[in-house]
Amino acid sequence: MITAHSPEHSRDGYTVTTSAGRGLKRCCPHCGAPGIFKGYLKTHDNCKSCDAPIGEIRADDLPPYLTIFLVGHIVVPILVLVEAMYHPPLWLQMAVWPSITVLLTLAFLPFIKGAALGLMWYLKIKGDEQR
Fold first, then answer.
1. What secondary structure does DSSP assign to 66-113, as a single string?
2. What are the backbone angles phi and psi of residue 27, rounded to the nearest 5°?
3. pLDDT tens, residue by residue, 77-129
4. Are 13 and 116 in contact (CB under 8 A)?
5. Residue 14 dihedral angles phi and psi, to the nearest 5°
6. Got the DSSP string for 42-54?
7. Is the pTM of this model over 0.90?
8. How far apart are the first and last CA of the chain?
9. pLDDT number for residue 131
């Protein structure tokens, strides 16, 4: 049974998983057309396909927070495991781990921002509710 608060509740023909999934693929959360970003993280004002106003959504701190959370949970256990098993020299660790952290952060951030935009689109919030 689908209720108003279930994750699969349909709003305007799409679900929260559909919207966030489309955003995760960096596609329009409304129609699924590719290319919501005109730069690395800058969104187009409107979707090129359905004219949805995706540029109005301000995700602000959520994508960086989730990216840091995810990357930290990937890098730290591997760092601890490598240290416990191999005891690499400090210079090597200081070269490898920050580099991996930066690369993973830069790789994940646009996808996580897209998912956050999709979630916010589904919830019909723009990120400026406190103003």
1. HHHHHHHHHHHHHHHHHHHHH---HHHHHHHHHHHHHHHHHHHHHHHH
2. -115, 165
3. 999 999 999 999 999 999 999 999 999 999 999 999 999 999 999 999 998 87
4. no
5. -140, 160
6. PBPSS-TTT---G
7. no
8. 37
9. 59
